[in-house]
Each structure stands twice: as C-alpha cells, then as structure tokens.
Amino acid sequence: MEGQFKILFDQMKIEMEKQTNIIFEKIDEKLEPLINENKILKHKIEILEKKVEYIEKEKRSTKTRQKTMSCILGWKSKGKKKKSLLLSCSRESKTFLSKI
User: Fold this and answer.
1) How far, in Å, CA of 86 to CA of 93, rounded?
2) Where do the structural domains in the chain lie, given as residue ranges?
3) Fewer CB atoms near the end CB (10 Å): N or C, the chain?
C-alpha cells in the first residue's frame, strides 16, 4: 500500500511539473511581444531624450548669440552709457565664446 502511494505521489509530482512548465511556456509566449515592444519604446525614448537635449542646448546657444548680437549692434544701448554698454557686451561675448 505504501509503495502505491509513493508511485501515485511521484506521478502527481511529474504531472504537476509538466503543467507548471506548460503554464510558464504560455506566459513566456504572452510576454514576448510585450518585451519586444518595451525594448523598442526604450530605444525611442533614448532618441527623443537626445533630441530634447540637443534642442535645449541650441535654445541656450541661440539666446546667448542673440544677446551678443544685440550688444554688438547696439540694440540695448537705450539709456545706457557707452562704458556700461561696453562692459555688458564684453561679458556677453565672453559667455558666448566660452560655450563655443
């Protein structure tokens, strides 16, 4: 009797392992498209982050160039003395040149 229980228990154990493997295989099949999509989305996010970084850098650079050009052309000279304007332009130029 005890031998039959052991055989039954071993058979149940084998059957449960088979079912567990089948379940995991089905889960893996269902997850595979999601994993692939996740990889694609991560790659797209990396590309977009680089684009945003580039745009922000260009925006800062453009603002600095505009300030420098306005100083050079004298657009901001209204109400400023020449010495003050010259110092302001000098600072803006140094800032601009340091970023190049």
Assistant:
1) 10
2) 2-98
3) N
List the structure tokens of 44: 């797209």
Give tens-digit pLDDT for 16-35.
999 999 999 999 999 999 99
- State how far Cα 22 lies from the chain centre: 37
Q: Which two tokens stand for residue 59?
A: 């925006």
How far apart are the C-alpha atoms of 19 and 12, rounded to whole Å?
10
What pTM value is reported for the model?
0.49
Q: Which amino acid is at 98?
A: S
CA distance 40 to 45: 9
Q: State both tokens at 43.
A: 């790659």
